[in-house]
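Our collaborator T.R. sent over the components below with a one-line note: 'Predict the complex.' Nothing else. No constraints on interfaces, no templates requested, no preferences about which chain binds where. So this is a plain run: every listed entity goes in together, and whatever single assembly comes back becomes the starting point for the next discussion.
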Amino acid sequence: MKWRWLALAPVLAVLAGVPWLGDAVLIQFGINALLIATLAQSWNILGGFTGYVSFGNSAFYGLGAYGTAIAMAQWHQPFWLGLALGAVLAVVVAAVLGGPILRLRGPYFAIVTLGISAALSALFANLDIAGKNIGLILPLTRDDAMFYELSLGLLAAATVAVAWIARSRFGIALIAIRENEDAAAAVGVDATRYKLAALILAAVFTALAGGIHAYWITFIDPAGSFDTTLDVRMVIMTMFGGPGTVFGPVIGAFVLSAIYEVLANGISTAAALFFGLVILLAVIFLPKGLIDLGGGFRALGWRYFLANIERHRL
Amino acid sequence: MSAPLLVLHGLVAGYGDVPVLHGVDLTVESGELVALVGSNGAGKTTLLRAVSRLLKSGGEIRFGGTDIAAREPEAVFGLGLVQVPEGRQLFPRMSVEENLLMGAYRRRDRAAIGASLAQSFDLFPVLAARRRQMAGSLSGGEQQMCAIARALMAAPRLLMIDEMSLGLAPIIVDRLLDVLVKIRGQGVTILLVEQDVFAALSVADRGYVLEHGRIVRAASAAELKSDPALQRAYLGAEDAP
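Returned assembly:
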């Protein structure tokens, strides 16, 4: 196993070297891609491993953004303290809400999570300390290379966390919950506690990404922070790359970010249409994600895609 | 004589305002194979859910001498009270072997887990032949074997089996009952909860008959089997065969 991790070192080195290319547009694309990949990877902890499809993780993103913004803009505290405040807020909300909502299963869970972001958005739009509807302006720091490396570091940390989960007893419990929660209970897995732990872990990484993003763009408001389109993107990118795998969500996020960027540059208005088409084809022909394509194609050839259509019936 | 392994005293349980169990008294001694029989809706599954603490209940539940009425399901499981749930509840997309290893999730004694696995395959050779196959692709009888084997992997002190015969051909049920006798012979106490009254009584030491949430008969299995009233109620026979 060890050598496979070493093989990642050059990839990480190349990614870390991007800011030295000096291309401002590339760095900005990179920051966005790294942050959305972090969101997908965080979503993967609960959604990919336990199968609890959340459309509410943007709530943690927003809390991370507001924690950072309030600490920096209102209380004039350093950035890292803001990040910590955002993470703490997200953990508290995940712990309080997790208990009741994680009792719901399947579509009921998904529907309830849809409301969380909207509720928090309304709450922050009425808080004086959060700048009400107008939002907050953070101190400006023009150092995209720093934001890039921070985002890369956070994504690496989230990926290490998922890699640990995938090989741990904790991860086995999460997968058991996904495969059959009643069966998990029958073998003595404390499903409630494990689901809550997964949600809290996801909340921490999501909030840190929100904090970095807030400081980078220096301006936040309720609509932009508690943005449900983010939830949809996390889900799509994870599903596209391979849910419940270590690198699937990252690959999914990078590939889809790149495809969208190319489409938006090339054919602008039709970009959304083609983007939708890519997702549609992926769902039909690659239900286990992009990460399964290599091994599956080698084993089955073109029949791999037909086998995947069959798989939908299981 | 040692204390009974499981003691229920005045057990009451229900769903919301609907009471299902109205004061059930039941004991299982160590090493026994006890059958709890009754028709659909008598409260058998409710009783199992209460004992494994998946359902809140009133009254006394003692397991191995300790009061478990206020414990969490995971804690009760940790004491060795393991259930084979109704409908098998396997992990359909995991292999047979993975399912069995999941049964040992709470154990950390690797060597002993390996021995348990070998023992399970010994009891159910067909599972050994299908160890790499997805559990969801097994036949109903094989799935039930897999569910029982998985429960054994937890090294239970008391194995509670809910509706083992459900949806299975009589010949498969007979084969499973033979295995239960073997498992009991290995020192595992068994509480078998069954609608198939006479199948359960054919291997049990003692039996309890549950009707409308109350124990209406408690006697040795032999006595219950030859009880004309029971035969009328559960076999529909006018006279004893």
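Summary for T.R.: Chain B touches chain A at residues 54, 72-74, 77-78, 82-85, 89-94, 102-103, 105-106, 136, 150-151, 154 (CB under 8 Å).
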